[in-house]
Amino acid sequence: MNIFSKVAARVGRVLARYRGYSFFDGLESAVYAFHQSLNNVDFQTDRNGERRVLQKLQPYQFKCLFDVGANVGEFSIEAAGLFPNSTIHAFEIVPSTFETLIQNIDGLHNVIANPVGLSSDGSKVSINMGDEISTATAFKIDGMKYHDEYYHQAILCETIKASDYVRANSISEIDFLKIDVEGMDMQVIKGFEKEISLVRVIQFEYGIFNISSHDLLADFCHYLEGYGFVVGKIYPRCVRFFDYHFSMENFHGSNYLAVKKNETELIKVLSAHD
């Protein structure tokens, strides 16, 4: 334990004696907000590092990218501009959102839009819907007042098994697999089966919906390391690759990157703090 940790632990023990007083409860909220920011819990791609990851990888001119959970096309549009000679396979499971996606990518010759989700078995999925287009999910936290009030309808949507799509389209390599499916990320990854070995870089999200999906960060790390990936967390200016520790299980809603161990140059570029 370094000096900063020792001081923080001592101060925390002192303050714990005064829990229940409004001032110290407010202080806890402030500390939590600081911790959230320090851990890069931020969904704005232009400042949380997601866009920076693509910019760092632009010199390698990837040829095949997957956008799973494409929503209205933010990632696909960005990738189409950075990798003009690539093919981007976009998947959006919600019909109304897919319509907006089609409108937004109009004119982009290298984006293939699919009105389905990717899954581990190709079954239909019940998707909980709220009022905002960006927050559809197969999972919600039952008993959590915000979720019970917000997700007020559910629709049945189509999926296809990820490995079936890869084989049907004779895809031999996937340079970048981006997944943002609100708790179903692990099911998408497992749906690739042995074809996951065709992927060089995977971006996935781990957050509050993993409480209901029962997929811990430990599960992601263990599964992906078994296929030769190293896992890191995306920060505004770099990716910090790590060895898993149970203290990382915080459900904060951050984005992670898995890169094949043999992609040493990519790992070096992504790790650089610039």
Description:
- This protein is α/β, with parallel strands linked by helices.
- The protein has two domains: 1-38, no CATH class; 44-118 and 162-271, Vaccinia Virus protein VP39 (Rossmann fold).
- 36% of the residues lie in helices and 22% in strands.
- The protein is built from eleven helices and twelve strands.
- It has helices spanning 3-16, 22-38, 50-57, 74-82, 95-104, 145-150, 162-168, 185-191, 210-213, 217-225, 264-271, and strands at 64-68, 87-91, 111-114, 117-119, 125-129, 153-157, 159-161, 174-179, 199-206, 229-234, 239-241, 254-260.
- The strands form three sheets. Strands 3-2-1-8-9-12-10-11 form an eight-stranded mixed β-sheet. The chain has a two-stranded parallel ribbon with strand order 4-7.
- Helix 5 (95-104) links the parallel strand 2 (87-91) and strand 3.
- The longest helix has 17 residues, at 22-38.
- The protein starts with a helix and ends with a helix.
Q: How many strands in all? A: 12
Poorly predicted segments: none
Q: Give helix and strand order, one letter per element, not per position.
A: HHHEHEHEEEHEEHEHEHHEEEH
Give the mean pLDDT: 87
Give a quick account of the main beta sheet: strands, pairing sense, barrel closure.
8 strands, mixed
Terminal CA distance reads 28 Å
Number of separate domains: 2
Within CATH, the superfamily of the largest domain carries the name: Vaccinia Virus protein VP39
Spatial shape: globular
